[in-house]
Write a structure and sequence with these properties.
The complex is a heterotrimer of chains A (about 170), B (about 50) and C (about 500). Chain A is an alpha+beta fold and about 170 residues long. Chain A has helices at about 1-15, 25-30, 30-35, 70-75, 130-160, and strands at about 40-50, 55-60, 65-70, 85, 90-100, 105-120, 120-125. In chain B, about 95% of the residues lie in helices and about 0% in strands. Chain B is built from two helices and no strands. Classes of the chains: A alpha+beta (about 170), B mainly alpha (about 50), C mainly alpha (about 500).
Chain lengths: ~170, ~50, ~500
Amino acid sequence: MKRAFIFVAILLTLMAPLASSESGQALIENANSFDGKTVTFRGEAIGVMIRGDYAWVNILDGDYAIGVWCRAENAKKVSIIGDYGHVGDTVEMTGTFHLACTEHGGDLDIHADNFTIVAQGRDVDRSADMRVVALSVALLAVAIIVVFYSWRIRNEKQKIMPWPSY
Amino acid sequence: MERRRSGLRAFLKKNFDFITGILSEVGLTAVIMVVAFIICVMLVLIKSMI
Amino acid sequence: MIPALTREDFKVIGFNLCRIGNILGFLLLVPIIVAVIYREFDIVPHFIIASSITFILCNVGIHFLKTDKKMEVKHALCLAAVAWIFCMMLAAIPLWSTRTTGSYLDANFETMSGFTTTGLSLAQGLDHLPYSINFYRHFLQFVGGIGIIVVSLMILSKSEMSSVLAFKGEAREMGIRPNIVRSSRIILGIALTFMVIGAVLFSVVAIGEGANIGTSIFDGVNYSMAAFSTGGFAPHSQNILFYHSTLYEIVALVIFLIGSFNFTFHYAVLSGKRREIFKNIEIKTMFIVLMLSTLVISGLLLYFNVYPSASILFRKAFFQAASAQTTTGFGTVYPAQIAGIWPSAVLFMMSIIMVIGACANSTGGGIKAIRIGIIVKSFFREVKKALSPGSAVVTEKFHHIEDTPLTDTIARGAMLIALGYIILFVVGTTATVLCGYNASSSMYETGSAVGNVGLSSGITSPAMPVPLKITYIFLMWAGRLEIMAVLVLMGFVILALRKGVRRR
């Protein structure tokens, strides 16, 4: 009986991270109903700003990003920030959601109690499309010819007739 | 050092109007913000008294 | 009687359009510098393609459209209207080819929003955009902001209705082109000065708030371009909220408030006429409208318990009101919160101040503070006339760089343009409601498009109906050009269809 109880407790603890997290869209569009409540939020780190013992980590979920206020040592765990060349670390946190945080000037934010890096970020391969490169070279060549030709004609006509000026 | 100081002084003198103009415009925006903040403070005070 | 159009009329417009296009061709190469710095070599060909197409079209156009005919006011007004559309379509190429937007129409929406310094955005994945593309979006706003000052001072002011916009302090009437070249340099100089000051301030504050140096400088330059041009584009999906910093927002306030001032006001103050700050009708009008709107909006938000303290009201209510009135569009509140949590009365108030707009001859949009001031003074004049004896001569004047008598022509011009904006607002709101959106959000979004603001209640998105996207492109375009240039262009087209086009 005791072993069964311990087994279930361990299983529940392991399953906790899999508990459903709220999406950024749900949090922002239903901010009133989440205000002051504990929420779980997961997304990609797209910005980190260390401010003394604490830090802001901006987390992006789909098209919605929310600022998370957490301890600086947690924020320092974020190794890759999401941008054009990188997918940022996936972060999951649990904390108190604020519709208009009085501590942070009325911002919509989450004060994190737990903060975990769920998955490491990675580089994104952004190699050039050779068809686009070929097209750009071809068009550039045509443009240079047209501009040069146009400039030459203008210069020759300038000798015969001045350029209109008004 | 002396040459650098006199160079800066000449630049400031020549562009006095331009520099003070920029400072004046920034000052104007500061006044706007201060008045707006005072309005916010007054509103909160009025609400707390009601 | 209006004479029939000739081929030369179209050639004058086309020829100068192609010359403007050549400038655009060079501007399309500028983001390549950013692409090289950030090693985005996959993006470079897209800008080369756009620039090459522009140069090819424009140089062929210059060759075939060259004419000796002198540019008149009617040509200049049409040119101003057509140039925005022409540049919009060419500048959209890199955004479409890099899949920054879902379709070519969305890319046109984005570039029109950029050039008109509106700030409504259909770009997807803002936080993962290439740095060069992100820079390009903000650069479009900076170029558009300078462009509209030049157009407003040099072209729009030539019509009798908007003569109050004419550049004061320059006694010579040298024709259009020489004035454009000389004045553009002055405008560019002043704009670059404030842009650099803004970039430095933003970067320093961001570094102080814990952001890394590279991000701080990149964001600083972009936010400064968007702030001074009262554009409102941001390099992050959270807009200015990305930094969670009151100081950052104060820097933004300083720069975009300055960007919303009249260029002739800048010229006067920077030339030593500092008393203009206290006497100028536009500064006084803007100040009064902004303080009244702050009072009403803060009062309503406090009454409905949305925000409880003065500092929060300053950051949210005042910032949003200032962002709306200067037609900037930076947001410290998520659009979904504005639509879902802010009271409808606040949205209505914001819609009004968005349409009222910033100062004339600035990067801002809307009816313009000078016209509001003139309309209010006109009412005072009429009341004075009614209360005075029949034989009395009642005059009114206003101060804009110099004391100017308030004539019937000036009053009529101001009221006509204001009426034009109101008509655009009603048409836009109706179109939005017909697409299924609620009334208060529709008014807010339409006010934002017509006033070239950029604040959104969530309606502007890639999922917007196509007819609404086209409507908003039209609203941004017409609003930017104060309607007149668009109407003259329509008149041109109707005249050509009715009377045909003569050879000479």
